[in-house]
Amino acid sequence: MITILTAGAVIALWWPATAGLTGADLVKARLDALKIGLSIGVGGGGVVALYLAWRRQHSTEADLDNRERTLAHQQAVAATAQAHQERVADDARADAIERRITELYLKAVEQLGSDKAPVRLGGFYALERLAQDNETQRQTIANVLCAYLRMPYVPPVEQDRKDDGTEHSEVYRERAQEREVRLTAQRLLSDHLAPDRGDVYWGELDLDLTGAQLINFTLTHVRIGTGTFHKATFIGDAEFLKATFVGDAEFAGATFIGDAGFSKAAFTSGAQFGQATFTKIAEFHKATFNGTVSFMGTTFASPTLFTQAAFARSVYFDGATFTSGANFAAVVSNDEVSFNRVTFIGYAIFTEAAFTSARFAGVAFNGGVECDRATVDDRPLANPLPPHNRNDSGEAG
C-alpha cells in the first residue's frame, strides 16, 4: 500500500509538467514519470520492508535475550540451591563422621579401663586404626597412649610367684599381662613415628611421658616434636638411635636402669638431662645438639661415650659424676662447655676434642686423663688438668 501511494504521489506531481508536450515527447515524458514514480515507490517499499524486517528481528532478539536472562537466572537459582543442598549434605556427613569417630574413640578408651588384658589390647588396636584413618586424631590418640604409660605400674618380679615355683600367682600373671599391654602401647608409638614407614607415619607428634615406667623402650629412626621424659624410669635398655627431636627433649631426673643409646640422635632444640641417672652404658656417639644442653648433676655409673658428638650451643656438665670411664674424644663444641665441679672417678678421654670455650673449675680427676691433640680456642688443652694448671676462673689452659 505504501509503495502504491508513493508511486501515485510522484506521478501526480510529475504529470502536470508534461501538459505542454505533444506527440512522442509527451509519451516519452509521461512514460519517464511513470518509471520514476514506480522506482521511487518500489524503493520506498523496500526501505519500509527493511524497516519492518529489522523491527521483527530486533523484537525476536529482545525476546531471545529475555528468555536467556530468565534461563540464566533460573540456572543460578538452581545452582545456589544445589550448592546449599550439597553444603547441608556435606555438613551432615561431617557430623556423622565426627559422631562415629567420637563413638569409636570413647569405646576404645573405655576398653583401656577393662580389668582384662585382651580387652585393653583391643582398645589400643582400635585407637591405632582410628588414628591411621583420621589424621586430625593422631595427636589426641598419641596423648592417650602416653597417658596410659604414665599410669603407675609395678613390673612382675620373682617374689610374685608361688612358693613351689610351678605356677604363677594371680598377682604375677596380672603384672605380666599388663607388661604386654604396655609394650604394645610403646610399640604403637615407635611404629608410627618413623618417617621411613611411609603412610603409617603419623607426623611430628609431641610425647609426654613424664614419670612413666617404660620397658625396653625403643624410639629409633623416629622424628617427633617435643619429647618429655621428665623423671621417667627406663626399665631395661632404652634406644634412641638416630632419633630426631624437633622440639625440646626433656629427660631431667630420668633413670636409665639399662643401657641408654642416643647414638646419632639429633636434638634440634634444647636438651635437658639434668639430675638424670645412667646406671649402665650411656652412649651419645655422633649425637648432634643444636640447642642449649644440660647434664648438670647427672650421674653416669657406667662407661659414657660422647665420641664425635657436636654441640652448637652451650653445654653444661656442672656437678655431674662419671663413676666409670668418660670418653669425649673428637667432640666438637662451638660454644661454652662447662665441667665445673665434675667428678671423674674413672678415666677421662678428651683426645682430639675441639672446644671453643671450656671450664674445669673444681673438677676432680681420680683416674687417668688423655688430652692428646685436644684444643680450647685452638690452644692445647693441658694434660692432665691439675689445679695449678688452671687459672682462677677455671678456664682450661
UniProtKB/TrEMBL annotation:
Q: What is the lineage of its organism?
A: Bacteria, Bacillati, Actinomycetota, Actinomycetes, Pseudonocardiales
The name of this protein is: Pentapeptide repeat-containing protein
The yes or no answer to whether the keyword Transmembrane is present is yes
Q: Where are the transmembrane segments?
A: 33-54
Q: Where is this region: Disordered?
A: 377-397
What's a Pfam family in this record?
A: Pentapeptide_3
Q: Which InterPro entries match?
A: 5peptide_repeat (IPR001646)
Q: Which UniProt keywords apply?
A: Membrane, Transmembrane, Transmembrane helix
Q: Give the superkingdom in one word.
A: Bacteria
